[in-house]
Structures are given as C-alpha cells and as structure tokens.
Design a protein that fits this description.
Elements lengths: L7 E4 L2 E8 L2 E6 L5 H19 L9 H11 L6 H15 L13 H9 L4 H20 L31 H9 L3 H13 L3 H5 L6 E3 L6 E5 L10 E4 L2 H8 L10 E2 L2 E2 L6 H9 L8 H13 L4 H8 L12 H12 L7 H9 L1
Antiparallel strand pairs: 1-2, 2-3, 4-5, 5-6, 7-8
Helix pairs in contact: 2-3, 2-5, 6-14, 7-9, 7-11
Length: 353
C-alpha cells in the first residue's frame, strides 16, 4: 500500500485533512475515497491558504459557505425555514461554485428542473430573492481577514416569467381519492390542513409548545406566532373535532406535532404527495390548494366573511392569544361546521388506514 501524504488520514471510506498550513489549522473532509484524489484536494487547499496568508490574495469562497453563514446569522428570520428549503434545493446546482463564478446562466438548469416539477413562477422568484440576498450580503456585509468583501459585485439573477396560477379547491370526493394514496402521516397532515387552513410550513413547524388552553375550558387551540406567520401577525388556530382527533394521535411522540421519527418534516410537497396526487388524477392540485379548499368550504357552510378572514389569518393583528373566550368559541363553532355528514367517508377512511 502506498504511503499517504502527511496530514491525510482515513475515517471510514473518506480521507480527511488534519494539517496546519502557514499557521492556519486545516480540519476538513476531502470528500474523496481515493488517496490520489484526496492528495489533489489537499494540494489545492494548501495553495489557497498560502495565497491568502502569504501573498495576501483573496480566497475564493463557495456559495455553500455563503449559505451556511446566512443561516447562522439570520436564524431570527421569520421565513428562515422556507429560506433553508430554497438553499437546499439550489445547492446541487451552485453550491460548489465559487461566488465569483456565479452568473445568471448558472441557474438556468435549476429553473428548468423546478418548472418540470410544476413549481410556479411566483415560488421560483421567491427562490431567486433568497439567492440574491445571500449574494448581496457577500458584497455589502461579509469581509475576509484583510477586510475585503467576499464578492466584489453581485450578479444579476433572472426573473422567472409565468402566468399566475389560479386556486384549485378540491371536492370531498377528490379529497377522498387523494388521501387514499398517502402514507398515514401525510394523510393526517392533509386532513389537518383541510380542517384548519394552515399553510404547508405552518403545519410542518407546528410544535406542542404552541398549544394553549382556553381559560375555563378543556379545549385547546394552537398559536401561530409572529415569527412563524407569513404576514408577521400572531393568530390562533381553533380546532374542530376532526383536527383534535388527528393531533391527539401524535401527542407525546416528539416536540413537533407532525414528524418522521421525531424529526421535523421539511415540507408536505414531497415525493409521497406527488405520487398520491398523480394516482388520484389530481396533478394540478398543490398543497396550498388545501388552504383554498378550507376557505371555500367555510363559505359554503355559511361562515361570514369576517370570520373566514379571521380563520385564514387575513386580519392583520386582529386575532391574538388574548382574543376573548366567546370569540374563540364562535370560531371553533365555525370550523366545527366542516365536520358535517358529507365528510364522514373520509374520516372513516383515515381511521381504518
């Protein structure tokens, strides 16, 4: 066996670097399983460090490094979970690229692939906004050891064109077909969305610590805090009989109400969702359409416009955890109207799964 280069050692199948170069401690994985490839990576890193430390040159940083710093410094952002989803999705396309080498065309394949997955232009433009933000921080805020910006100029990134998609509420029969093809956890999340009107990320991020007991009652509600609400305004989530029965099945299992092996789910729009949607011949239905369906069913049940706005969180700051007991009771009565006989077939289906 050939002798390895000093500073390289194998952990499992991967070669790792443990070396001090020009006073800089280098502790990282090469990501390589072959010694020759690991040695080339080490030589490259040594050259990069010497350029910076000895010759005063700027070190090239990758988008992956910039994204990691963004997540670390902006952990307080209300939309951080969604931003992380965007950064994870784009990483295979530009994660390894040096910041200076990223330009508009670097994201062409990402946009094509996302469109093929039926991601809307609006969602893609929100993705572009996150990427732009990271790149602009590299220019305006982040500096190296010599006080130079990580990036001299932020590239112009594309604006994705596309028609605005219309809502696609689903009928009770379509709901039954859709849920039939889902694993239990996703079926529960889908039905919970239809009973509460919560958004994808609000459901995925729902924790038991967000549950609050109604004074003088055995019933509880969940609170969507300002940090997690899309519009930045806290609101309550009243539960009807169906929603309560769903969450009770998960009580005591994890910090998160809905989870996989105790861990937070990243999104409802996953492979299982898309597979069930195709099987139900509902390829045009998105997760957000469950929220539209909730609103449509409230209206069909005779719920007033004001109450519908409250339940959907459209009244900025109107509903808070300090809402009166009588008003909360009225909203619970509103969502209880969704538990009509028309929905009993779906509930039977879920209990039998």
């Amino acid at each position: 066996m050939a002798k390895s280069t000093p500073g390289l050692r194998k952990k499992g199948n991967i070669w790792h670097i443990d070396k001090t170069v020009a006073g800089v401690k280098l502790r990282e994985s090469t990501g390589e399983t072959e010694l020759e490839a690991a040695e080339r990576y080490l030589a490259k890193r040594i050259q990069e460090i010497r350029k910076v430390v000895v010759y005063g040159e700027s070190r090239e940083r990758t988008f992956d490094e910039a994204a990691a710093r963004f997540i670390e410094e902006y952990g307080h952002k209300r939309s951080l979970d969604r931003d992380i989803d965007t950064l994870k999705a784009v990483m295979p396309y530009i994660g390894d690229l040096a910041l200076q080498k990223i330009h508009s065309a670097s994201l062409d394949q990402y946009i094509r692939d996302r469109k093929a997955d039926e991601i809307s232009a609006g969602t893609l433009n929100r993705d572009m906004a996150v990427i732009r933000r990271v790149m602009k921080l590299c220019v305006a805020m982040w500096r190296d050891e010599q006080g130079r910006p990580w990036l001299d100029t932020a590239p112009l990134l594309p604006t994705v064109q596309g028609a605005k998609r219309k809502p696609r509420p689903i009928s009770v029969a379509e709901q039954e077909r859709l849920i039939r093809g889902m694993p239990q956890y996703l079926a529960d999340m889908t039905l919970f969305a239809l009973q509460t009107g919560l958004r994808d990320q609000e459901i995925c991020g729902l924790k038991w610590e967000h549950e609050a007991k109604i004074t003088g009652s055995q019933e509880t509600v969940f609170i969507v805090t300002e940090e997690r609400a899309k519009n930045g305004h806290e609101r309550i989530v009243p539960l009807n009989t169906v929603a309560r029965s769903i969450v009770e099945r998960y009580r005591g299992q994890s910090d998160f109400v809905f989870h996989r092996k105790g861990n937070r789910l990243e999104r409802m729009n996953n492979r299982a969702w898309r597979k069930a949607r195709e099987a139900a011949n509902l390829a045009e239905v998105r997760v957000h359409d469950l929220r539209h369906t909730f609103g449509m069913r409230l209206r069909a049940a005779g719920v007033s416009f004001e109450d519908r706005q409250d339940l959907l969180g459209h009244h900025a700051g109107h509903i808070t955890s300090h809402y009166s007991k009588a008003e909360i009771a009225r909203l619970i009565e509103c969502v209880e109207l969704l538990c009509s006989d028309r929905q009993q077939p779906e509930l039977t289906l879920i209990r039998a799964a």
